[in-house]
Automatic annotation (TrEMBL):
The lineage of its organism: Bacteria, Pseudomonadati, Bacteroidota, Flavobacteriia, Flavobacteriales. InterPro entries: N2O_reductase_NosL (IPR008719). This is Nitrous oxide reductase accessory protein NosL. PROSITE patterns: PROKAR_LIPOPROTEIN. It holds the Pfam family NosL. Transmembrane segments: none annotated. SUPFAM superfamilies: NosL/MerB-like. It comes from Flagellimonas spongiicola.
């Protein structure tokens, strides 16, 4: 085998090892998986959330508010990924720290905080027109729920 060919295998092997170890969300099995925080079965594909540690341990939640409450109990420096479901595209996970959140009593969520996430602020603003409430970014919603 040529040295050039060995180099290519080494690069591919390193890439596979590095990507295999990167923390990423696990599949949420709706109707089967339980919420790590409140222990309810996760059934709502529009409001679920997930936290993944730097070591790759995934914690699944039936609602964004459960994930935020769980964050009070953990060392946040160990958190690698925070995702939640995109309201308009059920089961699609989006980066919670980049999402726009709508709190509207017109849109119930599993734990009663009326909290919904959107990938794009513009979409949240459009939904807000028919569902009165307030919009927040990640830092703001964490602060609101921690009071």
């Amino acid at each position: 085998m040529s040295l050039n060919r060995i180099g290519k295998y080494a690069i591919v092997t390193c890439f596979l090892v590095l990507t295999a170890c990167s923390p990423r969300p696990k599949e949420i099995v709706y109707g089967t998986d339980g919420c790590h925080f409140c222990r309810m079965t996760i059934v709502d594909a529009q409001h679920a959330a997930q936290l993944v540690t730097k070591k790759g341990k995934a914690y699944k939640f039936d609602a964004i508010e459960c994930m935020i409450n769980h964050l009070k109990e953990v060392d946040t420096s160990e958190v690698a990924v925070l995702v939640c479901n995109h309201y308009s595209k059920p089961k699609e996970l989006i980066d919670a720290t980049q999402a726009t959140f709508l709190v509207s009593e017109s849109i119930p969520s599993p734990m009663g905080e009326f909290l919904t996430a959107f990938k794009e602020r513009k979409e949240a603003e459009n939904i807000l027109k028919d569902n009165p409430g307030n919009l927040y970014n990640w830092q703001q919603i964490v602060e609101v729920l921690n009071h």
